[in-house]
# Entry
Amino acid sequence: MNKKFFWSSLSVIFGVILIAVIHDFSFRTEVIFYWDGQNYQQKIEKSRHPLLIKKERLVSGQLDFDGDGKFEEIILKNGTIFVKKNQNIIWQSEKDWQVENLFLADLNRDGRTEINFSLWKQGSYGKTLPFWLKENTKEWGNHFFIYGWEKGELRPVWCSSTIDAPIIEMGAGDIDSNGKDELIVLEGNYDRPQNNIAEYLTIWSWNGWGFFNDFRSRKGKFYNLSIKKLKDGNVIEVFDR
# Structure
């Protein structure tokens, strides 16, 4: 092989790698969403942050569902939720569900902490259908479910039908400082279901029977949702490509 050609090719490869590394660690747009006392606002900052997009990871937590003074362990692994007590599985999500996000919070404001999760499943509805339908739909869709402890076991507390936009990331926090958590969601697009980049950040609050949309951001390419506690209140932080 010609030595000049070899070193020239090697230089090109090294240059491409260097450009990719520099790009990955270049400045990103950091967007902060906050409550100003009357409305949700946002401010944009520049932050040196690598493009690290969250993917499915092991999620776990503990909660005393039955009030016996002993914690149950909640684990999300490989798309399935497991609830363990004394190392024994007492509940797990259905095998044909693909669960992607999970957190513990009291979003429906009933005074109890519950399991909140988003999932993919076939059919827009559950076993109980609206009166105008004779059978469930066939397509796969994204849903948001709340499960809590009732009558000695984990039961569905509130379950959505197929939602308008798939949930990429989600969390809970008291952003408007009213003492109650809101549901914060990074929404994706059904046309690109495997894309981990969201188009909108939305904030939802419980209205007694479901969730009301309090805020929708401008369209962006959002990722890495986090909720930060500050002295004067909580804020939402995301990065925008």
The chain has one helix and 16 strands.
